[in-house]
Design a protein that fits this description.
The chain is of the alpha+beta class. It starts with a helix and ends in an 11-residue tail after the last strand. The protein contains three helices and four strands. Strands 1-2 form a two-stranded antiparallel sheet. It has one domain.
Length: about 110
């Protein structure tokens, strides 16, 4: 990909995540999406919906650049106190995307380390 095209793609990526109330952390060809929520059931459902729609929109734009989300390298993690996390069942922690399920895990690699 040419550097000018990469800059356009990166700008669009930032616009998409901003529209969905999601934060983006990028390093090289990796990105992390972060969505803060209060651990109330309604907030959890809204956060999941926002994240799923954000990922779907990123996939759509990425395909126009002939890029593809690598679901095998994608992970979901929920962070909170033990009490907060107990409000979400294991199956509810997964994200159902149009192309499949992103399963939740208890640990992920942080791009900053």
């Amino acid at each position: 990909m040419q550097s000018g095209v990469l800059a356009v793609y990166a700008a669009q990526l930032h616009d998409i995540v901003h529209q969905h109330g999601v934060q983006l952390h990028s390093f090289a060809d990796d990105s992390q999406l972060v969505r803060h929520t209060y651990m109330y059931l309604r907030d959890i459902a809204v956060a999941k919906k926002d994240m799923v729609q954000c990922i779907a929109d990123i996939e759509a734009v990425s395909s126009s650049f002939r890029l593809k989300l690598n679901a095998d390298k994608s992970e979901v993690i929920w962070l909170g106190t033990r009490q907060q996390l107990s409000k979400i069942s294991t199956s509810e922690r997964d994200l159902q995307l149009p192309g499949g399920v992103l399963c939740s895990t208890s640990s992920v690699k942080n791009l900053r380390t």
